[in-house]
Amino acid sequence: MTIKQLSYFLAVVDTGRFTQAAALCRVAQPTLSKQIRTLEEDLGETLLTRGHDNVTPTAAGEALLPLARRIVADSETARMEIAELAGLRRGRLRLGATPSLCVSVVADVLEVFHGRYPGIALQIAEGGSQDLVADLQRGQLDLALVIDRGETVRDLALTPVLREELVVVAARGRPDLGEHIGIVELAAHPLVVNREGYELREVTLAACAAAGVTPRIAVEGGEMDAVLRMVERGLGVAIVPSLVLAGHPTLRATRLDESGEHADRGWSHRTISLAHRTDVAPTRAAQAFREDLLSVLARTSRTGHLPPGVRYVHPPTLTA
Amino acid sequence: MTIKQLSYFLAVVDTGRFTQAAALCRVAQPTLSKQIRTLEEDLGETLLTRGHDNVTPTAAGEALLPLARRIVADSETARMEIAELAGLRRGRLRLGATPSLCVSVVADVLEVFHGRYPGIALQIAEGGSQDLVADLQRGQLDLALVIDRGETVRDLALTPVLREELVVVAARGRPDLGEHIGIVELAAHPLVVNREGYELREVTLAACAAAGVTPRIAVEGGEMDAVLRMVERGLGVAIVPSLVLAGHPTLRATRLDESGEHADRGWSHRTISLAHRTDVAPTRAAQAFREDLLSVLARTSRTGHLPPGVRYVHPPTLTA
DNA sequence: GGGATGGCATAGCTTCGAGCTATGGCGATG
DNA sequence: CATCGCCATAGCTCGAAGCTATGCCATCCC
């Protein structure tokens, strides 16, 4: 008998459906079915009568119900009590992240974090890396996920966590750019670039300059979402992290050619690091978030659920 | 967080020692240490301060303590409640077994069974297989572990569970019988045999008769333990199941040669079966014991903790 | 009536972790 | 100073919890 099995059991009783219960517990339906069966075998009694369109507890199930509820509630209470002692019952976490991360990874992690520490108020600052770094240094953020160009930043410690790929996006209806495209050919198309403050903007312009081409800028300025919408309307193409493609099915990605170089080390890939100040001790909430972030990323990476073009960077303690 | 981890935690707090707690929980000490550590990582706080000669809970540990106690207690209560519904709270189990099994396998299973269903009164009948079969048929036993010679017995169903080997035992100081011995050479030594009612006695005498030799019987009669003691005192040698050797370090075993035959199929090996009546429905307690027996045997067999000379016979549903 | 749909069970596989043994470090103790 | 008791670490095995894919059986709807 495990607490997890009991919570699965409660979910089935409450929803009256294995399928819905599985969704509620965020596991696959066969997983939940098997766990319930294991619980039944452990206790030596069937707990649920499986009807074709409803599931109801048996007498043994009814007997188990109140105790299961109390056990599950107690386990959550225990977590809360300890969190409270650690200062995680009340508190605030100010997190900065780039737009590409906010819509994907950050949302997942925050869901876990908030489930664990519902009393922590969450403040998300979405913005370009340079802005986020400045906010960190001014003490307006506790943690930030920023682009790590390998430079040391005053008073900040950076821990690499993800490596993402930049791609060229174009609307689906537009002329096809093929599988790969070089920076020179790219200059033939009108470009949409972010406002200042985005690393992306600097990288794009620097790459053009390095290749000796002058980009034709169709639209300039705006946040990530705005850029994507303009690309969708066919105003031009843009260089964006492949992460943002999720949720934009009408966009088509083309990988960037960096001829003559190790593409993986060049400007078409970049490292996302978790940054925090070194001159002040991190809050307990920030520590907890960091742990949750790493464990969620490790898990997502293992199960192959990371978006295409993104790789998890194992923390040095694990790769060593 | 699992219930098991919490019970480990409680054991450590109550004993003040990891080592003692591990013994209490019947697990190895590193296993317990690691589980506690896992629990601490899960909760994000250390729960115990490890002193060199004492272990005390931290503030977080103190906070967890009452809830952990309640969770563990509730899980046991839940088991009890369901057992009560199933009629396993009060009741009686009358179990018969051969002496060789009583001192080994049966004790292990009964420990598990009694831990689960403390309200079931246990009555053990120790005796020869023929007596046990008769007791079963007369309704004086619910279950019995008997020797299965492959014959069908009226009103009884037999499920093979173990296959054990017969060996010749002699006192350590006596002349060495070597690694193997045939029945003819054996007849040169004075023999100690059980009283009537033991399959063992019949098998021994029948084997001698089949080989055309007349055994020299030094002592006749008595239960298994008495026979072993006489052998230990050097009164003679005896043919016994290898199971009974555990706990008698002064005895030396010699395997039996059955020349010209598949030894494994001959009289030097025998099958232990679980027997119950077919003309009356088994009690709920008997069903539960049967399940516990099979699972304990399967587990013991897997972990290689079966005594030498004994093999687990997989139930047909699992081998098929 | 016959497909479509929803719902649970089964099969086969992968991976994590709970268990073990063996060993190391480190105070306390004689 | 050597020994002992106690906990941690390392390395391993294997059970089981998770997944996907598929099957079976009802019900529902055309």
What does this structure look like?
Two copies of one chain form a homodimer. Chain A folds into three domains: 3-84, Arc Repressor Mutant, subunit A (Orthogonal Bundle); 91-161 and 274-309, Periplasmic binding protein-like II (D-Maltodextrin-Binding Protein, domain 2, 3-Layer(aba) Sandwich); 163-265, Periplasmic binding protein-like II (D-Maltodextrin-Binding Protein, domain 2), CATH 3.40.190. Helices cover 43% and strands 24% of the residues of chain A. In chain A, strands 3, 4, 5, 6, 7, 10, 11, 12 and 13 form a nine-stranded mixed beta sheet that branches. The model of chain A has no long low-confidence stretch (mean pLDDT 85). The first copy, chain A, has helices at residues 3-15, 18-25, 29-43, 59-85, 99-102, 105-116, 129-137, 183-186, 199-211, 224-232, 284-302, 316-319; strands at residues 48-50, 55-57, 91-97, 120-126, 143-148, 156-171, 180-182, 190-193, 216-220, 238-241, 251-257, 269-277, 310-312. Chain A is built from twelve helices and 13 strands. Chain A has 320 residues and is of the alpha/beta class. Chains A and B meet through helix 4 of A and helix 4 of B. The first copy, chain A, binds a DNA duplex (30 and 30 nucleotides) through helix 3.
